[in-house]
Structure formats: C-alpha cells, structure tokens
C-alpha cells in the first residue's frame, strides 16, 4: 500500500483483521483499525474490551504496532465494526483516539481519517480547539 491507498483498500485491510471473539466476560477484536504511515507502511490492530477501563481501542493497537516499528506519522487511518447482521461500518475515532493520534506526532493533526467509502476528514477538523492556548495577559 502507499499513501495514495484508496479508502476501499484501507477499509478492506482493516476488515481482514476484524475477528470478534469472547474470552470469558471479555470481548476481543470487534473493532479493527488499519493505518498507513507517511512512509507507506500499514499497521493494523484490534480493540480489547475489558472491565474498569483498562482495555483500548483498535486505533491504539495499530498505533502501538507503528511506534514499535519506529514510525510516528500517520497519513491515513480507518476503523471498522460489523453488526450482528454482518453489515460492515466505518467508525470515526473516539475523542481519546483523536487526541492520541495527535500526541504521537504533532504533524498527525493533518492525518486523513476515513469516515466512509467516499468520505474523509482531516484530524484537525475532528479535533477542534487543538492549538496550545495563548496566555491571558
């Protein structure tokens, strides 16, 4: 894949790792994410839902794989989920993920976030008031 990867290609890459399964009272992998870096490498991950807020989102898992490979700049990212009828959805990143993407590298404020087959937005548009504030005096 390259930084010109289509939304459909990125969605398909995320769908390929989507594999929800229950382990006891925990749910693993019901949301999957794939990102492509400015260097053209792709990384994927799945969510882990656990009690007490100790789990994490699929975007976090994909970003962790990216950082493990010593990359920090995200060109494009997508997350997907499938409902009980088998219908696939693209999910926008939650607020925590939006802030996490930004904090990995300041340039990620311009990351292209896939919101559908023909719809994207820059992270800056999904994360308002992201600039450091000016002093009051």
UniProtKB/TrEMBL annotation:
<dbReference type="InterPro" id="IPR016193">
    <property type="entry name" value="Cytidine_deaminase-like"/>
</dbReference>
<keyword id="KW-0479">Metal-binding</keyword>
<dbReference type="InterPro" id="IPR050202">
    <property type="entry name" value="Cyt/Deoxycyt_deaminase"/>
</dbReference>
<protein>
    <submittedName>
        <fullName>Cytidine deaminase</fullName>
    </submittedName>
</protein>
<feature type="domain" description="CMP/dCMP-type deaminase">
    <location>
        <begin position="29"/>
        <end position="107"/>
    </location>
</feature>
<dbReference type="InterPro" id="IPR016192">
    <property type="entry name" value="APOBEC/CMP_deaminase_Zn-bd"/>
</dbReference>
<keyword id="KW-0378">Hydrolase</keyword>
<comment type="similarity">
    <text>Belongs to the cytidine and deoxycytidylate deaminase family.</text>
</comment>
<dbReference type="Pfam" id="PF00383">
    <property type="entry name" value="dCMP_cyt_deam_1"/>
</dbReference>
<dbReference type="InterPro" id="IPR002125">
    <property type="entry name" value="CMP_dCMP_dom"/>
</dbReference>
<keyword id="KW-0862">Zinc</keyword>
